[in-house]
Design goal:
- It is a single chain.
- The chain has 160 residues and is an alpha/beta fold.
- The chain contains five helices and eight strands; from the N terminus they run αβαββαβαβββαβ.
- A five-stranded mixed beta sheet has the order 4-2-3-5-8. The protein has a three-stranded antiparallel beta sheet with strand order 1-7-6.
- A hairpin with a 5-residue loop joins strand 6 and strand 7.
- It is globular.
């Protein structure tokens, strides 16, 4: 679990000739724990949150780790009912992304999922996020991350 995602993300970076720094650390679940292990500011982390609606539509919302997602903004952006959207349960996250909570990356998931990017992520020069395992992260220049998000068709907006 998570190893396929780790491999897939490394392939995405290699195929795009994007230089990143891979980090190994103690297992982390929360963004705060991850920031401490990486020795980065909390705002440099990318938090990937999986949502589902009553029609079984899925979306990953990527926000700066120091912010909280605004579920109503997400629902409005997607045209979903504000009363019918919820965060995915741990077992749903594992099934849909191939990763445990705390290890879900912003891209490269087991199944194709719509991806939303909060523009606040681009306020940093560099970002970091887990890449499929709670013990593995990547540090990437923001302009490189933006290039990948554009290539995969991620949608940008304000979701915090």
């Amino acid at each position: 679990m998570g190893k396929e995602e780790l491999k897939r993300i490394k392939e995405i970076f290699a195929n795009e000739n994007i230089n990143v720094q891979y980090l190994k650390h103690k297992p982390v679940i929360t963004s705060e724990d991850a920031a401490k292990q990486r020795r980065f500011e909390l705002k440099q982390g990318v938090k990937a949150i999986l949502f589902i609606d009553d029609k079984l539509n899925w979306v990953i919302v990527n926000i700066p780790a120091d912010k909280k997602v605004d579920v109503k903004r997400v629902a409005s952006f997607l045209g979903w009912s504000k009363n019918k959207i919820r965060m995915a349960k741990p077992e749903e996250i594992l099934e849909k992304t191939g990763c445990e909570i705390g290890a879900v990356p912003p891209l490269g998931h087991k199944q194709q999922i719509k991806i939303l990017i909060d523009k606040g992520i681009y306020d940093n020069k560099e970002n970091a996020f887990n890449i499929g395992l709670r013990t593995h992260s990547v540090k990437i220049k923001t302009n490189s991350l933006k290039k990948i998000f554009e290539k995969i068709g991620a949608l940008e907006g304000e979701f915090t």
